């Protein structure tokens, strides 16, 4: 600041004081019809602002060297003191507080004495010693006025009843701004025995602050404009203040040591620096110090201990953590509750199928007991009463739960255990969290209990939802298992039907060699299907296909018809040589099932027709019967639903499995049915990309053995 030219500070003073003068004059004019908004002091404030505008203009052109400067400053102080008196009169305290008037009279006398001193100094013969004495006396009297004025402002706001503090908040803040600045200005002037021109150049800032606060106080929205620093901002600001105070104390102490160090000054300074640095490194990062500071600030600076918005956001962030690195839900539950109380760790005990809560998860803490559990009586008690156990009180014998229910011995024996918080969901105990002792342990109060109960209920809902999801997943796995078994039983039932048909026909045609040959082929084929059944269990119910390959659709159709023997009830109506991309076994299984359904739905002797023709880029298989048919509603809502069947003793999975297998072969299964007329199932399978021509092959009808295969 010493290197800056004097003209620079003159320009700064001119700009700031001109801004203050314009603001004060504008607010005074604006208050002319609105003076009542400031109560009994409205008229006085308007006049004081106008006079302050004149004083700011005088300061802008630096009239301090002539008598007009001190005269205007005395007038400014007196009129603002009168404003303070009128503010006291707003709630009739001017009549009840006699010392207020006495202080005002004393300050007015000092201001007039200052004015007389300035007038006498202007008329007297000047000398350096005389000027210094007058300057020191004048500054000391100015300090007296500013200190007295600040005391009045403090009593004005501090002694006001709560209902009037809202109206006094902004005017007192503005008055405090100008006199706090003056207090620092005159203090520096007294200590340096010279006028601090650089700091005085910034004096207009205090006037700007005064005008701003008064404007807010006179506005209609002043009640909603309140300064509400967050807890984190307060904590950080106070921490910086402590660090600043520490540094100032160190500087002052170092200066004091330099006066007494003598020849050992450097040694003493270095030793002192080493010790203080070591102390700072040990104390400042301490969790205990930070915990004490946070508890002290929240206890004395805030109406409520917790910033509930911040607590809720932190809880949501902790519980909602996702990704591969996110800890399990149990650990997140403990962490969410521990962070709220400032606890370094904890353990989660969860009820398992009606049993007592047992250890399920822990976070940054391992209980001393290897059998960490809550006995049934204690668990029932905290569930019934939603009771939060403060273990330190129990250890001291100061708290005993109703009914004489004791806490578990391992909890009382472990000195790190601090509190037990029940997690209750719909009046049922889901679990409990044991919190470890925080660095700055304290006694829990009503606000702690309310917050812990609310968070405990929220965490219990997360645990209950997670348990429900796990139960549903387990039920889904059992359902998948049962579905696969049902598919297996369905296939076995079809094979058993074939064996029964074969046994009945054997009684009639066992002596025929051709029948015996066909029977051997059928038994061999059924045996192979039973052996393959075990390897196909993993795909049942999913509709998956092991392998898709080009194959002749007409051969599959003829094989499917041959599975039903020479009964004459299953006929191959039309069959074109088509090459499709599919799974032979799955396609045959689909056609056999649809034909069998047609037989079951048709009267004895009525034929079931199977055809395989080309339709665009697909092979179309039609299975037509003249049975009882199905209603449109049944086809739409129940036909392809697993475990729904119209047949007595049926599993209701054949149509569903057939559709899933066709879809897995990139095909489509449609159905047309009318009650009393019959049903048509249409299977469409894509043709192979490159079909082989059979023009050069001798195509012949398959033998009866091939049909049976």
Fraction of residues in β-strands: 5-15%
Residue stretches low in confidence (pLDDT < 50, at least 5 long) are 1-5, 221-225, 538-543, 692-709
Overall outline? elongated
Total number of distinct structural domains: 4
Count of distinct strands: 12
Numbering strands along the chain, what is their spatial order in the largest sheet?
A: 2-1-5-4-3
Largest sheet: 5 strands, antiparallel
Based on CA atoms alone, the radius of gyration comes out at: 48 Å
Mean pLDDT: 77
Termini separation: 108 Å
* DSSP helical segment count: 24
Percent of residues in helices comes to 55-70%
Helix/sheet category: alpha+beta
* Oligomer status: single chain
Transmembrane segments: 6-31, 38-58, 102-120, 132-153, 173-193, 199-218, 238-261, 267-284
InterPro entries: GAF (IPR003018), GAF-like_dom_sf (IPR029016), HATPase_C_sf (IPR036890), HATPase_dom (IPR003594), His_kinase_dom (IPR005467), Sig_transdc_His_kin-like_C (IPR004358), XrtA/PrsK (IPR014265)
Domain Histidine kinase: 487-689
EC number: 2.7.13.3
Describe what you observe in this structure.
- 60% of the residues lie in helices and 11% in strands.
- With 709 residues, the chain is α+β, with helices and mostly antiparallel strands.
- It has 4 domains: 222 residues; 65 residues, no CATH class; 160 residues, Beta-Lactamase; 164 residues, Heat Shock Protein 90 (2-Layer Sandwich), CATH 3.30.565.10.
- It has a 5-stranded antiparallel β-sheet. A 5-stranded mixed β-sheet has the order 7-9-10-12-11. A two-stranded antiparallel ribbon has the order 6-8.
- A hairpin with a 2-residue loop joins strand 4 and strand 5.
- Helix 14 packs antiparallel against helix 18 and helix 20 packs across helix 21.
- The longest helix is centred in the last third of the chain and has 64 residues.
- It is an enzyme of class 2 (transferase).
- Its EC number is 2.7.13.3.
- GO terms for molecular function: protein histidine kinase activity.
- It comes from Novosphingobium rhizovicinum.
């Amino acid at each position: 600041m010493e290197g800056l030219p004097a003209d620079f500070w003159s320009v700064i003073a001119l700009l700031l004081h001109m801004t203050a003068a314009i603001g004060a004059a504008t607010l005074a004019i604006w208050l002319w019809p609105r003076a009542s908004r400031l109560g009994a002091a409205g008229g006085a404030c308007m006049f004081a602002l106008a006079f302050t505008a004149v004083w700011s203009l005088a300061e802008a052109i630096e009239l301090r060297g002539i008598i007009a400067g001190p005269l205007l400053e005395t007038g400014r102080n007196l009129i603002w003191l009168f404003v303070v008196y009128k503010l006291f009169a707003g709630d009739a305290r001017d009549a009840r507080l006699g010392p207020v008037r006495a202080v005002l009279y004393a300050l007015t006398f000092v201001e007039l004495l200052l004015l007389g001193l300035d007038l006498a100094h202007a008329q007297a013969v000047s000398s350096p010693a005389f000027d210094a004495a007058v300057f020191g006396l004048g500054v000391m009297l100015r300090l007296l006025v500013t200190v007295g004025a600040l005391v009045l402002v403090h009593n004005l706001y501090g002694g006001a009843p709560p209902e009037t503090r809202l109206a006094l908040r902004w005017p007192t803040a503005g008055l405090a701004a100008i006199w706090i600045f003056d207090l620092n200005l005159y203090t520096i002037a007294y200590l340096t025995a010279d006028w601090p021109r650089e700091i005085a150049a910034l004096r207009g800032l205090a006037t700007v602050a005064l005008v701003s606060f008064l404007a807010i106080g006179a506005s209609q929205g002043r009640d909603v404009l309140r300064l509400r620093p967050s807890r984190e901002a307060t904590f950080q600001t106070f921490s910086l203040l402590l660090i600043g105070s520490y540094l100032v104390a160190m500087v002052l102490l170092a200066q004091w040591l330099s006066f007494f160090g003598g020849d050992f000054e450097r040694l003493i300074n270095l030793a002192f620096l080493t010790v203080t640095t070591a102390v700072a490194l040990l104390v400042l990062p301490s969790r205990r110090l930070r915990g004490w500071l946070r508890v002290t600030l929240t206890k004395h600076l805030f109406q409520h201990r917790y910033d509930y918005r911040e607590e809720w956001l932190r809880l949501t962030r902790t519980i909602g953590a996702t990704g591969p690195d996110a800890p399990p839900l149990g650990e997140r539950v403990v962490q969410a509750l521990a962070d709220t109380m400032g606890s370094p760790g904890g353990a989660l005990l969860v009820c398992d199928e009606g049993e007592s809560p047992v250890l399920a998860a822990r976070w940054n803490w391992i209980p001393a007991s290897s059998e960490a559990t809550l006995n049934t009586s204690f668990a029932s008690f905290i569930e019934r009463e939603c009771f939060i156990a403060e273990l330190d009180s129990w250890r001291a014998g100061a708290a005993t739960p109703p009914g004489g229910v004791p806490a578990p011995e391992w909890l009382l024996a472990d000195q790190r255990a601090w509190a037990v918080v029940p997690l209750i969901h719909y009046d049922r105990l889901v679990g409990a969290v044991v919190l470890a002792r925080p660095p700055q342990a304290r006694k829990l109060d009503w606000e702690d209990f309310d917050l812990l109960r609310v968070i405990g209920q929220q965490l219990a809902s997360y645990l209950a939802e997670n348990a429900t999801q796990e139960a549903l997943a387990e039920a889904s796995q059992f359902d998948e298992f049962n579905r696969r078994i049902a598919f297996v039983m369905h296939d076995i039932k079809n094979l058993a039907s074939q064996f029964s048909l074969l046994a009945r026909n054997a009684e009639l045609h066992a002596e025929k060699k051709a029948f015996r040959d066909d029977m051997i082929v059928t038994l061999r084929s059924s045996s192979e299907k039973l052996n393959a059944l075990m390897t196909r269990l993993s795909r049942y119910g999913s509709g998956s296909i092991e392998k898709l390959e080009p194959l002749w659709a007409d051969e599959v159709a003829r094989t499917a018809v041959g599975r039903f023997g020479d009964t004459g009830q299953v006929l191959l109506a039309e069959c074109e040589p088509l090459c499709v991309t599919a799974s032979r076994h799955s396609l045959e299984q689909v056609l056999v099932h649809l034909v069998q359904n047609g037989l079951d739905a048709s009267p004895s002797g009525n034929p079931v027709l199977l055809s395989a023709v080309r339709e665009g880029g697909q092979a179309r298989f039609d299975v037509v019967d003249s049975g009882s048919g199905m209603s449109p509603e049944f086809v739409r809502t129940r036909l392809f639903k697993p475990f729904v069947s119209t047949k007595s003793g049926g599993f209701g999975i054949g149509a569903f499995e057939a559709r899933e297998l066709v879809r897995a072969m990139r095909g489509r299964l449609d159905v047309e049915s009318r009650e009393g007329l019959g049903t048509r199932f249409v299977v469409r399978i894509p043709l192979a990309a490159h079909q082989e021509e059979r023009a050069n092959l001798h195509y012949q009808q398959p033998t009866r053995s091939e049909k049976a295969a």
